[in-house]
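User: My collaborator sent over this chain with a note saying "see what the structure looks like." That's all I know about it. Can you take a look?
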Amino acid sequence: MSLDRRILELLERDARHTPQQIAAMLGEDENRVIAEIARLEKEKIILGHTSIINWEKAGDDGVTAMVEVKVTPEREVGFDAIANRICRFPEVRTVYLMSGLYDLAVVVHGKDLKDISTFISQKLATMHQVQSTTTHFVLKRYKQDGFIFDDKEKDRRLVVSP
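Assistant: Without extra context I'll predict from the sequence alone. Here is the result:
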């Protein structure tokens, strides 16, 4: 497996790894790892470093919704132009091109139901290419990006010592 692939896998699991730690884990030169990470960032393969936050425990009363959007694709640019416009709204967290009845899946976040409703009715649904939307409000998160929220199950693995 290539060095860049091994670095990406480590960073995807835990973005807090320093280049020094990555170099030690992979048995590589630290300067080579630093240069490889810089190249991956420059080429926009690594887009950013983020944390998964349990906002409910932090006291956030925000609301997340998944909005299915049916759009009319534009000649020569297809779905890309409308998807890129939707991406620019600050309420939008994620946009996916999907197969099935709807073309786009859009994850939005707001302070309350009215905030999301206003976004959909005044910004999203009024866009020329948008034919229809269906909104699903998230009631509870159980797992996100590989992290389980409120995992009550005990680790049953046996302790292994050298």
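A starting point for your reply to your collaborator: The chain has a mean pLDDT of 92.
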